[in-house]
Write a structure and sequence with these properties.
Blueprint lengths: L1 E6 L7 H17 L4 E3 L10 H7 L5 H15 L2 E9 L19 E8 L5 E6 L5 H7 L9 E4 L2 E5 L8 H9 L4 E5 L8 H14 L2 E5 L2 E4 L2 E4 L3 E3 L5 E4 L5 E6 L3 H9 L8 H10 L1
Parallel strand pairs: 1-2, 2-3, 7-8, 8-9
Antiparallel strand pairs: 1-14, 3-4, 4-5, 6-7, 9-12, 10-11, 12-13
Helix pairs in contact: 1-3, 2-4, 5-6
């Protein structure tokens, strides 16, 4: 499958402008023959956790989702987008008090649509990054699920999640061959796309696509640096710091070859690791 990755600058709380950017990217990606467009974390509303917490009306979210489904349907392309979503449950702090995000009860989520605009996979972010996200959102607990998408076993994480090897391995052990990661990575963290994403792809032997923002949004300066890494750690596509649309071929043959050559997943010893954790 030809995969496309959008790297762009969003306008905070300007949904019309951001959806126009996604629509244009979807059109160009579809014309190039891509089967899927991956977009950055919270791109339809812009990345600004505290402003979203204070200003975003959750009643507008279903309409935004329907417009995104219309983009996928119009251009006949799969689409990954990220939005806040209301949480059904909120964990209490150790003292029993509800967190500050209780007023919104929101997770950061990612959704995979097929080329008809139908939802085929949803994921909620497990690892929140920094004080702003912790104030505005609630960390989820469910593991990444896996679905068959265009013949490739596909899963999702969001931004900081991918920096934890356990999260990527959870997707891989569930059969993922392609991991899609909307992100909002600030400038100064160059080693994440340049080193860590390739390491995650190599150690769990799957394709990893990582879509970041560029430029300035709210109080954040974003790195860009979006990448697609193959299951042997090779770099399939990489962006600089400017808006762009990346393309990379991803598939199952390279995943199977990597897992046969070095059987990391098959030779894991999770029961032993559990004992190590108990003794630490």
């Amino acid at each position: 499958m030809l995969l496309s990755v959008l790297q762009a600058n969003a306008s905070v709380m300007d949904v019309d402008a951001n959806l126009k950017t996604i629509d244009d990217a979807a059109r160009r990606a579809a014309q190039a023959g891509a089967g899927l467009l991956l977009t950055p974390e919270l791109f339809p509303v812009g990345y600004a956790p505290l402003r979203l917490h204070a200003e975003l009306d959750p009643a507008t979210l279903p309409g935004i989702r329907e417009r995104l489904a219309g983009i996928a349907r119009t251009h006949g392309i799969g689409l990954v987008y990220s939005l806040p979503a209301e949480s059904a449950e909120l964990p209490a702090h150790d003292d029993g008090a509800q967190p500050a995000a209780a007023a919104n009860r929101w997770h950061i989520t990612a959704t995979l649509l097929d080329d008809s605009g139908a939802e085929v996979l949803n994921y909620a972010k497990v690892h929140l990054f920094g004080p702003e996200e912790h104030k505005a959102f609630v960390a989820a607990q469910e593991p990444p699920a896996v679905v068959d998408f265009n013949g490739i076993r596909t899963s999702m994480l969001i931004c900081y999640d991918v920096e934890f090897p356990e999260a990527v391995r959870a997707a891989a052990t569930r059969g993922a061959e392609l991991l899609l990661v909307p992100t909002a990575l600030s400038a100064g963290f160059d080693n994440v796309p340049q080193v860590l994403i390739r390491a995650r792809a190599l150690e769990s032997q799957l394709n990893v696509a990582y879509a970041n923002h560029t430029g300035h949004e709210d109080v954040y300066n974003f790195l860009g640096g979006s990448v697609v890494a193959g299951p042997d750690g090779s770099l399939l596509a990489a962006a600089g710091d400017s808006p762009t649309l990346l393309f990379a071929e991803v598939g199952t043959d390279t995943v199977k070859a990597a897992r046969e050559e070095v059987p990391y997943l098959r030779e894991r010893r999770p029961e032993l690791y559990g004992k190590w954790d108990q003794r630490s």
